[in-house]
Amino acid sequence: MRIGSSIALIAIGAILAFAVADVVDFIDLTLVGWILMGVGALGLIISVVMAGTSRRRVTESRQLHDPHTGETVRRDDTRDNGL
Predict the structure, then answer these.
(1) Which residues are in the DUF6458 domain (predicted)?
(2) How many independent structural domains does the chain possess?
(3) Region 67-72: what's the mean pLDDT?
């Protein structure tokens, strides 16, 4: 679940919980609204935490030795791993 879908669930849940006054015999729309808001809030928290931890700095180091010249070449690459 991404941030946008979490916000959509929160909005739909808020509409059902606070703005809909219709009564359906077999379902409580207010309870469904609260459940959707809770799931949306949980999804939003998880999405934000996962987005914050997905960016990691990766450093890769390579060292090569040329047998003909005896020269040693070292290469260091640093990049962000994530979106």
Answers:
(1) 3-69
(2) 1
(3) 86
